[in-house]
Amino acid sequence: MLARTCLLRQTQRAACARSFAQKAVSAAPNAVPEQTAAAELPATGSARSSCAPNTVMEGINYLKDQRPVLALPDEEYPAWLWTLLDKSELPDDGPGGKAEKRRLRKENRQRIRDQNFMKTQ
């Protein structure tokens, strides 16, 4: 259930993470200016995160008396983390396969939405 909820709200999480990163960069007095400037440049190679290393991540630590959570360098995060928001591509495995079932479910959902919309008109 939790994984489904997280996947449904990917865009909200991404926007929330960006706002936390922006607040953290502006509110972190101990952030190194070179690191902050490097994080704001467009990603040309290995830079994948939206905030500089050692940036205080506001709102992540919700327990009392917990140390502030600091952003790590990109190399210290696991490789699978950077692929979470990628869309999964199913191979076309013929009739009755997973790709066709997903396509049919999507078409059925859209048909139901259209019917429900027409009932309100």
TrEMBL record:
GO CC field: mitochondrial large ribosomal subunit
Keyword field: Mitochondrion, Ribonucleoprotein, Ribosomal protein, Transit peptide
Annotated segments matching region Disordered: 87-121
Biased composition (Basic and acidic residues): 107-121
Pfam family, one: Ribosomal_L37
UniProt superkingdom: Eukaryota
InterPro entries: Ribosomal_mL54
Family to which this protein belongs: Belongs to the mitochondrion-specific ribosomal protein mL54 family.
PANTHER family attached to this UniProt entry: 39S RIBOSOMAL PROTEIN L54, MITOCHONDRIAL, LARGE RIBOSOMAL SUBUNIT PROTEIN ML54
The name this protein goes by in its record: Large ribosomal subunit protein mL54
Organism, scientific name: Russula ochroleuca
